[in-house]
Design a protein that fits this description.
By secondary structure, the chain is mostly helical. The protein has 18 helices and no strands.
C-alpha cells in the first residue's frame, strides 16, 4: 500500500491539519467544560464543595489542571526532541485519556485532583507539540493561516463544551457533568485514528540524521518527486539550519546567563518574544474567564444558573465568529499590529466593568478582541 493511503500535496497537508486541529479542539473543549461542571449541583454535592468554606478547594481542583499543563509543556522540551512530533502527541493523548477516565469515574476529591493533573500533563504535551508539527509540515505561505485556524478550532472546542454543558444541565444528576467529560473521547478517538499514519516532521527527521526519509516526506507534502530541484533545495536549507543550530547551540545555563555564543543567533531575544507573548496571553485572564464566567454570572450578576450557562455559551459563539477575522488578516496586518490593537481594546473593556449588569456586555467585548488579536498570534 502507498504511504499515507496515497495522499500527497494539499490533501496530505489537510489531514495533518485535521489531526493538529482536533488536538487544539480538545484543548479548547477541556478549557471550557469544567466551567460548566463547577456550577453543577450534583458535582458540588458529591464532592462536598457547595459550602463557603470549601471555595478554595473548588478553585484548587479547577486550577490544578493548569499546573499539569505546565509540567506537560516543560516535558515536551525533551520528549518532543527524543520521540518526534507524532509519538509525543500520541503519548500526550494517551495520558489525557487516563486523566479523563479518572475524572469521569471520580466519586471523591482526591481522585478528581489526580485526574485533573494527569489530563493537564497530557494536554501540555499535546499543545506544545501540535502547532510545531503543523508548522513543520506546511508550506511557508500557508503556515500562518493554518496555525491561526488551529487556534480558531480551539475556540470551536471551547464553544462546543459550553453548549454541551448547557444542554446536559437539563438532564440533572451525575449525567449532567459526567457526560460532558465523556465526550472528550470523540476528539481522542480522532487523534488515535489519524496521527499514526501521517508523516513525521521533516525538520525533526533531518535533525536526527534521517535525511532520505525527510526528503521523501517533503516530496509527498509538495506532490513532487524526491529528485525535484525544489525538494533538494528545501532539504539542503533545512540541513543547513539544523547544522547551524547544532553548532551554535547552547545549554540552558549559558542561555540564562546571557551568553549568546559566537553565532549571534539572538537566542535570548527569540526566547523572550516567544515565551513573553504566550505569558501575556495567559495573564490577560482568558483561562480565568473560561473557567469561571458562569460562576461570576451566578454569584456576582445574580443570574439564574440556566441563564448564566446560556450567556456563557452565546459568548463562546461570538468569540468564535470574531476570531475568524484573524485568518485573512494575520499576514496582511502583521503579528504586532494585531496584538497591540487588540490589547488596547482588552484593557479598555477590563477597566470598564464597574456595574455588574453592564459587565455582561464587556465580557462579550473582551472575548471579541481577544479572539481577533490574541488567540492565534502568540503561537506564531
Amino acid at each position: 500500500m502507498a504511504p499515507y493511503f496515497g495522499l500527497t500535496g494539499g490533501w496530505l497537508t489537510f489531514w495533518v491539519s485535521v489531526a493538529c486541529s482536533t488536538d487544539m479542539m480538545l484543548f479548547g473543549y477541556d478549557q471550557g467544560v469544567f466551567g460548566g461542571v463547577v456550577v453543577t449541583d450534583d458535582y458540588l454535592e458529591l464532592m462536598d464543595l457547595n459550602r463557603p468554606s470549601r471555595t478554595k478547594l473548588l478553585g484548587t481542583i479547577t486550577a490544578i489542571y493548569d499546573v499539569g499543563c505546565f509540567f506537560g509543556a516543560i516535558a515536551a522540551f525533551s520528549l518532543g526532541e527524543m520521540l518526534g512530533r507524532k509519538k509525543t502527541i500520541l503519548l500526550g493523548t494517551t495520558i489525557m485519556s487516563i486523566g479523563a477516565i479518572l475524572q469521569i469515574a471520580a466519586y471523591g476529591v482526591p481522585q478528581m485532583i489526580v485526574g485533573r493533573i494527569v489530563a493537564g500533563i497530557g494536554n501540555g504535551l499535546n499543545t506544545a507539540t501540535a502547532p510545531v508539527w503543523q508548522a513543520e509540515t506546511s508550506k511557508a505561505a500557508w503556515r500562518g493561516k493554518l496555525v491561526v485556524i488551529e487556534m480558531i478550532l480551539n475556540i470551536a472546542g471551547f464553544s462546543m463544551s459550553n453548549w454541551v454543558t448547557y444542554g446536559f444541565s437539563f438532564a440533572g444528576g451525575p449525567v449532567s457533568w459526567r457526560m460532558p467529560l465523556v465526550l472528550q473521547f470523540i476528539f481522542i478517538i480522532v487523534l488515535f485514528a489519524t496521527t499514526p499514519w501521517l508523516p513525521e516532521s521533516p525538520r525533526w527527521l533531518i535533525a536526527h540524521g534521517r535525511v532520505e526519509e525527510a526528503e521523501k516526506i517533503i516530496a509527498d507534502l509538495e506532490a513532487k518527486t524526491v529528485d525535484d530541484p525544489w525538494v533538494v533545495t528545501e532539504s539542503k536549507e533545512i540541513q543547513w539550519a539544523a547544522d547551524f543550530e547544532r553548532e551554535n547551540g547552547m545549554s540552558w545555563t549559558d542561555l540564562l546567563k546571557g551568553r549568546t555564543g559566537a553565532g549571534n543567533t539572538c537566542t535570548i531575544r527569540r526566547l523572550i518574544l516567544g515565551a513573553g507573548t504566550q505569558a501575556m496571553q495567559q495573564l490577560a485572564g482568558i483561562n480565568v474567564t473560561s473557567y469561571y464566567l458562569p460562576t461570576v454570572l451566578v454569584e456576582s450578576v445574580k443570574l439564574e444558573n440556566s441563564m448564566a450557562r446560556l450567556l456563557a455559551a452565546c459568548n463562546s459563539v461570538s468569540y468564535l465568529l470574531f476570531s475568524l477575522i484573524g485568518i485573512p488578516n494575520v499576514e496582511r496586518w502583521g503579528r504586532r499590529k494585531m496584538m497591540m490593537y487588540a490589547a488596547s481594546e482588552i484593557l479598555e473593556e477590563s477597566a470598564a466593568t464597574k456595574v455588574a449588569s453592564a459587565s455582561i456586555a464587556f465580557f462579550f467585548l473582551y472575548y471579541v478582541f481577544f479572539g481577533i488579536g490574541w488567540q492565534g498570534v502568540p503561537w506564531l
